[in-house]
Design brief:
It is a single chain. By secondary structure, the chain is mainly beta. The protein is about 0% helix and about 35% strand. It has a 5-stranded antiparallel β-sheet with strand order 1-27-26-25-44, with no helix packed on it. It has a 5-stranded antiparallel β-sheet with strand order 2-23-22-21-20, with no helix packed on it. A 4-stranded antiparallel β-sheet has the order 5-4-3-24, with no helix packed on it. Strand 37 and strand 38 form a beta hairpin. The radius of gyration is 24 Å and the shape is globular. The N terminus is likely disordered.
């Protein structure tokens, strides 16, 4: 079904919990003696918000200087019929070059202008930064000489923001619904030759569609979609680099899970916008994000950046020969602070990049992803001993925010500590369930859902209502799930943008259940990930720890060592990496 293009709606800004106060300690340190507490958990516990650890952290970028003659953007052909440089998609300081927009892991939206040495805040009107699933620069669509952006919400709202500046602001003029059916929406630049940046959208099944820009940004900025082709799910990243060949038409790169890079030359035709692909490189698996940044050096051709897992940035300049790229050069460090980079080619992760631990004394602790395969120092999330005997559940967000939801099963009820500014009872009929998991959206509407298993082994979906206040009527998935001693999930393990779960049986076999997006049949038939997983006393799904948009796993062995399993995007995991010891201090980890 094609997304509807409807009138603008402005949701209220999401509000966070409590004041921003926490102790930051490292794993393995001795804990203070717990305060005396009743053995029966209280339904209203003290919780503090995650501290802002990325405040002041800025990447150090050393991008090419604009040594070549700057070519002003134009939609028409130059003198003598020669094509001129394509307009940059993210030029917010009006110097003819694109700027870099990113969001930190503390949900701070920043811009790194090409005319400045330091990044600063970038405000998009209408919503808080932690609500955007993706930010898509589309250049000047209105003809006023100022760049515009699109924002995509997890619930499928695509919103147009006109007249943005280097400081942000601008006007919200249009919103269309239903875009959650795609696992990637991007703007590679002008594909049709009219000077406006167009959209590409890919379904989890691998169908790629073109939405041509119309120029009517107030009512209908994009035409009805046109199917480009099928099989595009072969790429875990689609990278629009604007005009790479110098003909004024946008081009596209695709990277496979194995790291092969292919180039699609733009044709200017709406019916067939790309030529057949050319293989232009291998070894690109070393990057968790490949970023199309338009023209970096002033030669009029689009270039690429590659971000390594450790946050290092490398520059690849176009050579002018098809999609061939020059040998990489170092372009900076510290880019792992960015959880979202506007215009990148990967399907964006959303909803949970945290790990929650309840220690043996009843104190609640939180860790979060540093986007480099490592976890932050732990932060105390409760009074000492204040959660003794409780059953906390760290869930993918149940409202429109990038922050994880903190739930508790207590006295037959389910409570949400991240709803508005106080604890909220979501259900009073939770006593029959022995498993509660918040893996993300299982029903295809973009809203976070919860899975439960009852004592008879039946699995249920509780569709979230999008606010964290409650659920729609539960849906029974099926029986026999008591064969598993662990069921976990947080996001997409398999690279198609849909939420998956994994389950471990008593023999130690871990099985992958791929999500379908169909609430009545939410999983495909399982396939084995591997054996020997009963070596771990605890398994947890923290979401994406490596910055590639795919969910990862962690396990704690009998010695208390924590191991990271990085998803390879096909439903399997790389060899485990030890992150540290002392993790047997936790009675619950999720």
């Amino acid at each position: 079904m094609e997304p509807a293009l409807s009138a603008l709606a402005r949701p209220k800004r999401a509000r966070r919990i409590a004041a921003c106060t926490a102790l930051v300690l490292s794993a393995g340190m001795l804990l203070a003696a717990p305060a005396s507490a009743d053995a029966t958990p209280a339904p209203h516990r003290t919780v503090t918000e995650r501290p802002t650890s990325s405040t002041g952290l800025r990447p150090t970028l050393t991008l090419p200087k604009h040594t070549a003659r700057k070519q002003k953007a134009a939609a028409a052909e130059g003198a003598g019929g020669a094509a001129v440089a394509a307009k940059p998609r993210a030029d917010f300081d009006d110097d003819g070059y694109s700027d870099l927009i990113y969001r930190t892991y503390d949900a701070e939206l920043l811009i790194s202008p090409s005319t400045a040495d330091q990044a600063h805040a970038f405000e998009i009107p209408g919503k808080a930064p932690d609500v955007h699933k993706d930010v898509i620069p589309v250049g000047d669509q209105t003809g006023d000489g100022v760049a515009d952006v699109l924002t995509l919400s997890p619930y499928g709202s695509l919103s147009f923001h006109a007249g943005m500046s280097a400081a942000g602001t601008g006007n919200s003029t249009w919103t269309g619904k239903g875009w959650q059916i795609y696992n990637k929406v991007l703007s590679p630049g002008d594909l049709t030759g009219d000077g406006r940046s167009d959209l590409l959208a890919r379904t989890p099944a691998g169908e790629l569609y073109l939405y041509a820009a119309t120029g009517n940004t107030a009512a209908s900025p994009f035409s009805a979609r046109v199917l480009i082709g099928k099989g595009w799910g072969a790429y875990d990243q689609l990278i629009g680099a604007n005009d790479v060949t110098g003909d004024g038409i946008a081009d596209l790169y695709g990277r496979t899970v194995s790291g092969e890079l292919y180039f699609y030359t733009g044709t200017g035709s709406t019916a067939a916008p790309f030529t057949d692909p050319d293989h232009v490189g291998r070894g690109w698996k070393i990057y968790n994000q490949v970023i199309g940044v338009d023209d970096l050096n002033g030669d009029g051709r689009g270039d690429l950046l590659g971000r390594a897992v450790n946050g290092d940035v490398y520059v690849y300049l176009a050579t002018g020969t098809g999609g061939e790229l020059a040998t990489r050069v170092a372009g900076g460090t510290g880019m792992n602070v960015a959880s979202l980079i506007a215009g990148t080619g990967g399907a964006p992760d959303y909803g949970k990049s945290d790990l929650l631990g309840l220690d043996s004394e009843g104190t609640l602790w939180a860790y979060w992803s540093l986007n480099n395969g490592k976890l932050s120092p732990r932060a105390r999330w409760s009074d000492v001993g204040g959660w003794k005997g409780a059953k906390p559940v760290g869930a993918s967000s149940l409202k429109e925010t990038t922050l994880a939801s903190l739930l508790e099963v207590f006295d037959g009820g389910l409570y949400n500590y991240t709803y508005m500014d106080s604890v909220h009872r979501m259900s009073s009929a939770w006593g029959s369930y022995n498993v509660t998991v918040g893996p993300g959206d299982l029903t295809g509407d973009g809203k976070g859902d919860v899975l439960t298993r009852d004592t008879d082994g039946y699995l249920y979906i509780h569709p979230g209502n999008g606010t964290g206040s409650g659920f729609d009527a539960r849906i029974r998935v099926g029986g026999g799930w008591n064969a598993y001693n662990m069921i976990i999930g947080a996001g997409d393990f398999t690279g198609d943008g849909r939420t998956d779960v994994v389950a471990r049986d008593s023999a130690g076999v871990l099985k992958m259940y791929r999500g379908t997006g169909d609430k009545y049949k939410p999983f495909q038939s399982p396939f084995p990930v591997g054996r020997g997983w009963n070596t771990y006393t605890k398994l947890a799904a923290p979401g994406d720890l490596t910055g590639d948009g795919k969910a990862d796993l962690v396990g704690v062995d009998r010695n208390g060592s924590l191991y990271l399993y990085i998803s390879n995007g096909s439903g399997q995991f790389a060899a485990p990496v030890r992150l540290g010891g002392g993790w047997n201090t936790y009675s619950i980890l999720n």
